[in-house]
Amino acid sequence: MGVDRRTFLKGAAAGAVAGTAAGLLPVTAAPVQAARDYEVPGSLPVDRVVRTTCSPNCTGSCGQLAFVRDGVVVKVQQAADYPDAAYNPRGCMKGLSYVNQIYGADRILKPLIRTGERGSGEFREATWDEVLDKVAGSLTDIGTKYGWDSIHVFGQVPGSGYVQKGANYRACALLGMTHGTSFDFNGDLPMGMPITFGVQNAEHEAKDWANSRFLLLLVGSNPVETRIPDVHFIFDAVEQGAKLVVIDPSFSPTAAKADAHLRIRPGTDAALALAMCRQVLEDGAADEAFMATYTDAALLVRADTGVRLREADLVTGGDEAKFACWDTATGKPAIVGTERLGFAEGVRPAMAGTWSVTLADGSVIGATPGYALVRTELDRWTPDAAAEVTGLDPELIVRVARAFASAKPAAILMGGGSNHWYHGDLTGRAFALLAALTGNIGVSGGGFSVYVGQYKVRVDTSPWWSPGGTKAHVVPSIYFVRGRTETMHPDVPYPEQGWHALVCTFANMFVQAMDVNRLHETLAGLDLIVVVDHQMTETVKWADVVLPATTWYEKTDLTATPLHPFLQLQQAAIDPVGESRSELSMWREIVRRIDPAKAAEFFEMDEEEAIEAILAAGDVPGGPTEGITLEMLQAGPVRLNVRDPDVPFATQIETLVPFPPRSLPAPLAATAAFIPTARIEFYKEEARFRDLGETVPTYKPPFDDTVHDPKAWPLTLLTPHSKWRIHSSYANNEWLAEIHGGRPEVFISAEDAFARNIETGDEIRVFNTRGEVVAWAHVTPAEQQGSVTLYEGWWPRQFKSGKGVNELTSSAVNPIHEVHFVGNMWSPSTGWKDCRCEIEKAGQA
Amino acid sequence: MSAANPVVPSVPAIPAAGEATKHPSRRGLQVAWIVTLLALMAMGIGAFAYQYANGLVVTGMRNVVMWGQYILFFMFFVGLSAGGLIVASAGRLFGVKAFKPITRLAVLEATVAVILAATFILPDLGRPERVLNIPLYFNITSPMIWDIAIVMVYMAMSASYVWLYARADLARRGSWLALGTGTSERTMAREERAKGAMAWIALPAAILLHSITAWIFGLQISRGFWYSSIMAPMFIASALVSGLGLVILLALLLRRLGRLSFRDDLVALLGGLLGMFVVVEAFLILAEYLTALYPGAPEGAAAARMLSGPYLPLFLFEVVVGLGVPFLILAIRPLRRRPAWVALASAIGIVGIFVHRLNLVQNGLSFPNIELPPGLPVGVPQDGSSFAESYFYVPTAIEWMVVIGIIAGGALLFTAAVAYLPMQEPEAH
Amino acid sequence: MTEPKVRPVDALSPASRAWGEIGPRSDQPRWGMVVDQERCIGCWSCAVICKSENDVPLGMWWNRILTEGDALDQPMVSEGGGLEMHWLPLACQHCENAPCVKVCPVQATYHRSDGIVMQDSDRCIGCRYCMIACPYGVRNFNWGAPVRPTPHETGMVTARPLGTVEKCTMCVQRLADDQIPSCVWSCPTGARIFGDHNDEDGRMATLIREREGTMLLEAAGTRPAVRYLPPRRRSPL
Ligand SMILES: Nc1nc2c(c(=O)[nH]1)N[C@H]1C(S)=C(S)[C@@H](COP(=O)(O)OP(=O)(O)OC[C@H]3O[C@@H](n4cnc5c(=O)[nH]c(N)nc54)[C@H](O)[C@@H]3O)O[C@H]1N2
Ligand SMILES: Nc1nc2c(c(=O)[nH]1)N[C@H]1C(S)=C(S)[C@@H](COP(=O)(O)OP(=O)(O)OC[C@H]3O[C@@H](n4cnc5c(=O)[nH]c(N)nc54)[C@H](O)[C@@H]3O)O[C@H]1N2
Ligand code: SF4
Ligand code: SF4
Ligand code: SF4
Ligand code: SF4
Ligand code: SF4
Ligand SMILES: [Mo]
User: Fold this and answer.
1) Cβ contacts of residue B16 below 8 Å, gap of 6+?
2) What confidence tens digit (pLDDT) does each residue in C105-155 have?
3) Upper half-sphere CA count for residue B320 (Cβ side, 13 Å)
4) I need a surface site. Which of A702, B3, B43, B115 has the fewest CB within 10 A?
5) Would the CB of C63 count as within 6 Å of ligand 7?
6) How many of the other CB atoms lie within 10 Å of CB of A715?
7) How far apart, in whole angstroms, are the C-alpha atoms of residue C194 and residue C182?
8) How far is the CA of A256 from the CAs of A248, B4, B177, B375, C70, in angstroms?
9) How far are the Cα atoms of B302, B303, B307, C217 from residue B299, in angstroms, in the given order?
10) Which residues 92-111 of chain B have a CB within 8 Å of chain A?
11) What is the pTM of this model?
């Protein structure tokens, strides 16, 4: 052929070279064009900016600003106006996305009356007059037929809204309806606290975490996800050199920040705590002076009866409420009163040994200091024994114990993960013991705090909650869900004729309650279900009558939280959306229709008057709201009259005044009865403690193991709280769903997944004898073999099937929680995490 | 396009310009052909209007793969154009007389192709009505600006090139399009020199055109799969394959239609040439992948991905079918002498190059530069998370309609030109 | 409601307004940000408030939080065999040598003299070349009409037109009122610090110096105005 290839190649090559040469044309690295400074439009103007408080059932209580334009909220952003700058800005992505809750597709705009089957979600819109008449009418019928106490009013955590939620109590008190409980119902009530300290609960304010100089021990607490506004205080401490140790079966996002993550077997924290205590003793690091002065350690316990030796035993006509220790100085028992901590002049109490004591009747018995009995139990808990139970490395247990003991102040932060167990009280008592043994109680940067629900009543609400001094009677709502127990405390005012109506407000009960299938048996027997909410939740779907509520951007209230001691207002930024109304106005209308006289006398107060009454009641020397006025609150958050930093028991420790401090709203006497010695009690003498072998802190295996044999039900179902929701709130928020994908995932270890040939994305059935859900598997190294995590709060509609995860959880009641009864203070606490299950690919079996 | 052509008996004699259109038996087919093209164009315009009204959400593109079909066809047609012209002008530059018969065709193909390429930019813009911002606010550091510039220059050049070749006959026909030039000895001599000169401009221009198009991609450090100095050479190689391939097809077609005549050994010659281009392309691809994969470093991830998942079949098509088959055909002498086989090889070659460019865009963009969960926001609301760690782009019907519409327009233009302009370069001189 | 409108900043309480003030700066500020990966908890507050502040429709995010792990909020197994997880908040890095600015054919994306890379939505032709060029993938294209969860527009600026590209503007509308960007305001852990690179002993510059702040994809030579403070080394018991 007539063409010379090479010439061609040369040609092409030449071209290519020319090309690449052109490629090297200088494209400078320096800023590529002259900068331009066009006028950019500023922020769009607004009608006003209103300061309110985000108060879902979350412990944040974060001040938020509502930016209002043309009558609608166009942005929500933290107020960042706390006088104590350490608390700014306070808030999380959920609160910031609240516009979607105010105006989202699930917002209930009108009163509704059920037309279809219960649960069908078929309603017709109605006028307020119609629904109010209907509710008032039915309540009256039921009240007269079965007694008003057969009407159960369930409203979550009053601490997050003293006025609107208080209106529930006020109405109950006026009409004689029963008010339910929430702190115990939520499994949050850390029974270890009333048992040990005689208080409902008492935690250091979050700011004080930063003062922990050395070691923070996080037990079943996931602040990175569940204390978003406060977790930075932990980082502050860490920046000062504090070590962070996280005890969690899963590699929680909090564990990601830790110096050490102890991957414990679920439900076995008590064993770890006991082993740590034993190690502290063995190393001679125990603060015995502290134990003797502030706890019941030195008080003698009768060997024959197992109850404490009292003055009445020793001298005829002696005081039943006075106790005794063995005074090594005199070699005789010495009387220990309850008016002051410590001991009488010169008394040198024995902390060990069994002493023979001659009683008033002349008989001689052996008596042992409580401390000795505690130590006998601790002796069992060698590192190896604890390792056996917890699955942890014994070496590590020793190292952590030593680090903890050598670190002062050292803080223990316990959370729902450890508390939400049938035996959560034992875990609490064991860690309280660890804190006491190391003298960390009542000191800033130390302490044993259980951070759980938004429970705390920080002000004197009586003028509002208890009209004319009448209190609503309170029945633990777990008895509503599962009926009463044999062992129920006689003081519980359980309705004679059982339950006949439910008014559910501020709660998504049929999603968040335990043992939901059991709950539905109760519901089936009800003549009336009224639900008050502003989102079309599963609970609302089951209502006979739906009353549309306003959000905290549309109403006035007074709120506070355990995490920080600031009193704050909710203030209306916009008119109520749709026809929604405040709870106070609803109750006023209902009571008016039932008993106009009472309404006239007690329900004409508006929100601001209620707030002023509450403030006034606490405005006494040393009172919680001393010197605080409504005007001050309207200007911004005001710190309650508490010490700074707010450290529980500091007064007892510093001034030797007896335990317990008061737990509002209960009278002091009510909770003081929990600890007759008026000291921190590690020995419990009540019969049931003795019968169940729980006189001293000990470990017991998870309760559900007795219901679901671990061999047949090898997996523990952990249902912690999701970063993306407050329980079920915000589960329908579109911005957040864009991030997390909006479908329930079950996190499972590679081992457990492999054994069931499950892969990420598979539809899986999670089931036990109580119920089942179908969700999607996510295989992750974060989980350990033997437990799976399904964050609580997903809406049933978001599952592939089922009512939601609480079909599986247990409504078992621990009789220890029934030894005394003060609603929300010594009362049955739920064990959400105490739940076994099995998993299989959906569509099998 | 060639496939869509009615097969018609070839006629030995070379009819004068325009005569073909008078042939009665063919008229119906021609009308049908024109009408079809017009219909397709209408469809394309409709689709474009719809897209303009609703936004590019109607395409398969998203934030992750934000360039697709339109850019793909842009570079593909730039390639076709450059390839055609390189062959034509190179032929002349290195005095390959044998190419003479197809020079005009090549030049015309180049011109139509580059016009199409330019057109494909429009539907890709989110704001086509603002296209004038380009001349108004052009940014000299933007390879896209360089490319648009070179495309313009190149378009003008190839148009005048076409004119140069057609001028004489136009003059003879006394058409005003001859712009008053005559056919005197002197003018013809000047024409020859002009053609020569033109070839000198055309070759580098064509090469530059495609290199710059390559640099639109190759200069982006953000795209590991593209950021390589081999981009330009590779683009040129693929341009040569597809461009020459198309010229061969059109040439054979026109010969069929009796608008062009040349001897079969020209086909064989072009076939051989094509085979050589295929080899060069294959070589560059090999070099590219070897360099990317050998270190086993993260930089090679994109290349590695081509060899797995949904990308593998595409890659195999590109390499095995797109390059392997044509090479085999063209390497076998007897086959290379058979126009039908060469045509087949060319057709496959063209498709192969198209897939090559598809892979370039698809795989270059499917995976964000920072591969951490949850990935990139896709840009439009969707069920579940609105983030994607990877995205497999599939063009929508709308995109296809627009593309087909534009190509139909090109076909129409080409048909008209062929019908009006003489295609045959006189053997004389 | 037709009330007289006010500038948001003027409607703030003194305390809130003070929280947002930018504070000391040089006389030739080059604005920037530093993100402390040790403090970052991946809560997305900064991303959500960004969406809210700037009326960013569904499907788009100017700011997002990447998980250095197996999946969203899931750890990865580290070399040592232990588990590890960090978060990497990612928005426009406001590169000094900005690829997007380089490639934009019509100079619709450009530098301000304070170093902020801005977007001119009225000039943008929607070619998306800047998205190709950006190594960080922080640019969003308006593929269709904006979709919001709310029946009305939200946020403090007007939405961008169909067919144009948008991204983090460093909240210039707020800077104009001497207020820090919304994401910085709203970070609950104080992991985001806004400041002026030219103010050597300002808080941001000091942190970058002392904790050896890094640039993302430094090799790309983009010289970002946004820097990162690496997570601390864990101290064993
Ligand atoms: N984002 C968000 N924040 C919230 C809430 C919310 O719903 N969402 N709810 C608020 C309320 S009311 C509450 S009560 C708190 C609860 O919040 P937390 O006190 O943090 O309790 P959980 O989230 O239930 O569990 C915390 C961790 O305990 C681990 N865990 C589970 N079982 C065990 C165990 O047996 N032992 C140990 N050591 N760890 C275990 C879980 O893996 C989880 O990581 O959060 C409050 N804050
Ligand atoms: N499996 C499992 N279950 C659990 C837990 C667990 O760890 N595991 N945790 C338990 C714990 S600790 C808790 S605290 C509970 C929380 O249980 P709930 O408090 O019931 O949980 P939420 O989903 O927050 O329900 C609050 C409801 O109140 C509505 N609401 C919000 N504002 C208002 C208002 O102003 N007025 C009215 N009327 N309604 C309003 C919201 O729309 C929402 O439907 O869940 C418990 N459930
Ligand atoms: S949801 Fe809880 S943490 Fe988040 S802003 Fe509201 S109160 Fe604060
Ligand atoms: S807001 Fe702060 S902590 Fe949360 S993701 Fe953003 S930077 Fe991280
Ligand atoms: S991050 Fe991307 S968009 Fe921002 S300046 Fe750099 S290149 Fe441009
Ligand atoms: S999309 Fe707009 S900003 Fe981006 S490069 Fe094109 S014109 Fe410039
Ligand atoms: S600076 Fe403003 S625009 Fe940029 S990410 Fe933060 S909030 Fe969004
Ligand atoms: Mo709770």
Assistant:
1) none
2) 999 999 999 999 999 999 999 999 999 999 999 999 999 999 999 999 999
3) 7
4) B3
5) yes
6) 24
7) 10
8) 11, 63, 78, 21, 13
9) 7, 8, 15, 13
10) 93-94, 96-98
11) 0.95
